[in-house]
Amino acid sequence: MSRGTKVSRPEGKDFPAAPEGLHPAVCVDVWEIWTEPRDERWGGGLVDRTRIIWQIDQTFKNEKGEEERYQVMQTYTASLDDRSNLYKHLKSWRGRSFSEDELKEFELENLVGVNCQLQIVRNVAGNGKTYANIAAIVRADKNAEKLIVTSGFVRRKDQKREDQHEQHDQEPIDESQFAATDDDVPF
């Protein structure tokens, strides 16, 4: 049966904004880099972007009444230029500068499973919605319990596969792989 040509706005899931403050967090996803038009205020043209998503240690009750961790995301220009927010956030998260070799090519995928602390502030947008924004990212406290990615979380790259109805047998997630220590932070 044909679906026709009518389109509609999808009903998005309305996530509550994460609470303000400094929170232990774990990186749960890094989106593949995409290209989009740059705002004319910034010179126009095209810009490469990426998105990083974290889960914090606090939870809320979802529509089913189940406890779920707050998620916070940040979209970045995909650049390690000294002036870029991605560079500044990664540098403070690492607690050290990048070497010249690291600046030539840095694999964002290595961030998944790495702990940090997120300084979250809330802002109200023109549409009246409250958003949780990341003001700063710093290294995880050495004495803090390490967070791991919750077992129900599905990364965007895996959601794409499911949306395309590809058949794939997925091995059970070994959650210990997400428990990085300060000594083995891979970036």
Please tell me about this protein's structure:
With 187 residues, this protein is mainly beta. The protein has one domain. It is built from 3 helices and 6 strands. It has helices at 85-94, 100-104, 156-163, and strands at 21-30, 34-37, 46-61, 67-77, 115-124, 130-139. Strands 1, 2, 3, 4, 5 and 6 form a 6-stranded antiparallel sheet that branches. The radius of gyration is 18 Å and the shape is globular. It starts with 20 loop residues before the first strand and ends in a 24-residue tail after the last helix. The model is unreliable at 165-182 (pLDDT under 50).
Short description:
The chain has 187 residues and is mainly β. It is 12% helix and 33% strand.
Largest sheet: 6 strands, antiparallel
Low-confidence segments, given as residue ranges, are 165-182
The whole-angstrom Rg is: 18 Å
Structural class: mainly beta
Spatial shape:
globular
Tell me the number of strands: 6
What series of H and E elements makes up the topology?
EEEEHHEEH
Counting DSSP H or I runs of 4 or more residues, the number of helices is 3
Work out the helicity level.
10-25%
Q: Assess the beta-strand content as a share of residues.
A: 25-35%
**Mean of residue pLDDT?**
83
Number of domains: 1
Distance between the termini: 50 Å
